[in-house]
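Record type: monomer structure entry
Structure origin: computed from sequence
Chain ID: A
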Amino acid sequence: MNRRRINLARHGLAMLLLVCLCLWGCGEASRKGQRRITSIHCIGGYGDAAAVLAVEFERQTGIHVDVLQAAFLPLREKEKTDLITGAGNFDVLQVAYQWDEEIFPLLRPLDEIAPGMVADLEDFIPTVRTNCGQWKGKIYGLPMSCDAVTLLYRTDIFEARSKEYQKLTGRPLRPPETWEEYINISRFLSSETMYGNLVRGEQCYTVWSGIFYGLGGRLFDDDFQPILNSEAGVRSLSMLVEMYKYAPPQPEALSLGPTCGFLQGRGAMVMVWPSLIWTELADTNRATVVDKIGASVIPGARPELSAWSLAINPACKDVDAAAQWIQFLVSPEITKRMLLEYGKGSPRASTYSDPECKHKIFYHAQLIEGLEKCEPRLRIPQSQEMTDYLDSEIVRAVRGETDPQAALDRTAARWREILELSKQVKR
């Protein structure tokens, strides 16, 4: 009797295994026949969001998206290598707008490979639309997100010390409208327990450029010769150096992340990309002053733009699937979700008039104002090399290793060398 039961059990197990193998085979066959594309994104918030949204996209369309992620500079190199070699490892590319003029010549315009895809661009913020995804009058990518350096400040501290500041200056304590006022307020609010301001410790160029443009500076003359070592350039870098006097000690300040301790209550003001602090705002263990933060456009109202577009690799085997995925990600519904759920600025103007966004995003009015008046980075093929060199000289000036004039003189000379070398290579 026991032996019979054992035989029956073995038979049942064998049948179950056979059914599982059949189901697996059917599933594998189904997967092989399924439409699939690969999309590469910047690691972190963008990549994580794409991975989540890809599941929803597949439910709606039946198209599977393999989402890959890479850090900022490796992403650029991976995309360039894939395009130059024609390997076709990535169907959809997330492209930072400062890479446009080195990536886009390797692509085909969207309206050539996916007609109708760029029919309606009116809702995209003009400064974003014209500086992100477009090159030489043709559209190679659609804007998926954007940001502008924004000033955040402690409303409780400004209110508590306003009368004292007014007695000294004759003006109420309010978000600064000029860079001189920014420095004066930083000095006034700086104490043993509070830094007057907290300055970015990385990509210092993004803060310096806002000061520079706010003072009327220009990077190049009409003949495209570098003139950033002008009076406005030296004055703006001198001001940035001055700001660090009312910030954490230089070694600490230059190693801190974008928030620089602001959300922990260590400073009265900070200039940041809002999209980079969104996750920290929701972390109550790290962000202790969230309900005491206000926002303002930076003095001079000419902040630096950050923007990303999505483009299609010419080697893509299923252009229609890639086009559907991009249109899904840049749709009004998804760009709104990207702002509300991941803090990524929307490239669409309609997002900023949405009642839910107005209610939940305390800096939305200042962000859209900054985006409408922003200044773009260089978009030439040499832009990354040039801004990296500038950033290294800015850091040297902040550390006291060189003076602002010498730092910018060296930068202008190096930029001329880079531009001249590029001309020789073209010849």
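Annotation 1: The mean pLDDT is 88.
Annotation 2: The longest strand covers residues 141-148.
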